[in-house]
Design brief:
4 strands; 3 helices
Length: 133
């Protein structure tokens, strides 16, 4: 079972921030959740009271047998930084999956449907299905 652990540095964790992290990172790992061991989200206030783009969200995803993914986003708004980091994590996971790398599963699906699909340019059935008149 996977868990999303949230840590803060420089401020306390509100229920709203915890819910926001759970929602966005839960969505980011939804498709591969059964393979995820843990996601650690670290929320930082880099410059303290000085202002500026100083809110950071770093996420570290651990897989039982495989690589560890680390993403980070910095923004003036911590909620936006959380959204950006979750989006980056989702993109990293998607790019790593075999379905998006042109694996054998993808090739089999193409071969299995190519004869029954109509030609996308003309809208006519594939050559093997056209009857001679």
């Amino acid at each position: 079972m996977n868990t999303i652990e949230i840590r803060t540095r420089g401020f306390g964790l509100s229920q709203a921030l915890a819910d926001h992290c759970q929602m966005h990172f839960g969505r980011a790992i939804r498709l591969c959740a059964q393979h995820v061991r843990r996601v650690t989200v670290i929320l930082l206030d880099i410059n303290g009271d000085h202002g500026g783009e100083d809110k950071s969200c770093r996420a570290i995803l651990s897989l039982p047998q495989g690589p560890t993914f680390t993403v980070e986003a910095v923004d003036r708004d911590l909620y936006r930084a959380i959204c950006l980091a979750a989006t980056r994590l989702k993109r990293s996971l998607r790019n790593r999956s075999p379905q998006h790398r042109g694996g054998s599963h993808r090739a089999e699906v193409r071969r299995g449907h190519s004869a029954s699909r109509p030609n996308y340019r003309t809208g006519l059935p594939a050559v093997s299905q056209v009857e001679a008149t």
